[in-house]
Amino acid sequence: MAEKRDLDLVEVAPKANPPVCKIMNYGKYIYRQQKREKKNKKKQSSSPLKEMRFRPRIDEHDIMTKVNKITEFLENGSKVKLTVMFRGREMAHKDLGVETLDNVLDKLSDVADIDNEPSMIGRFLSVYVVPKKKGD
């Protein structure tokens, strides 16, 4: 029957008793299956980690530029790592870095939630922020 129709005989359930076969165009079936998998893969959202770095003595306008970019990242569903970098004698004035980070977090309070508390690792003061939930 399959040869008459120029189709393929495909075994669907080999372990069934009796085995189940189906007459179909196997090439077309594989093509549609690949398309379906590709479409499902597009729908999956992978939330990459983005990072924005600051210096302790950054100017207000520069902060606003970076905050706008961070907001864009958060709207796309990404998790963002905010890092304040200290160099040389700036390590003696960690309070300036904490103020800078607090300033940025205040500006992001309407679009972001803090994922964990700020932590000092070597010369970097870091905190992770995630997009705010829709229900909040």
Structure summary:
The protein has helices spanning 26-43, 60-75, 94-107; strands at 8-13, 20-24, 49-54, 79-85, 112-114, 119-121, 124-131. The chain is α+β, with helices and mostly antiparallel strands and 136 residues long.
Task: Provide a descriptive summary of the structure in words.
This protein is of the alpha+beta class. The chain folds into two domains: 36 residues; 83 residues, Translation initiation factor 3 (IF-3), C-terminal domain (Translation Initiation Factor IF3), CATH 3.30.110. The protein has three helices and seven strands. The longest helix has 18 residues. The protein starts with 7 loop residues before the first strand and ends in a 5-residue tail after the last strand.
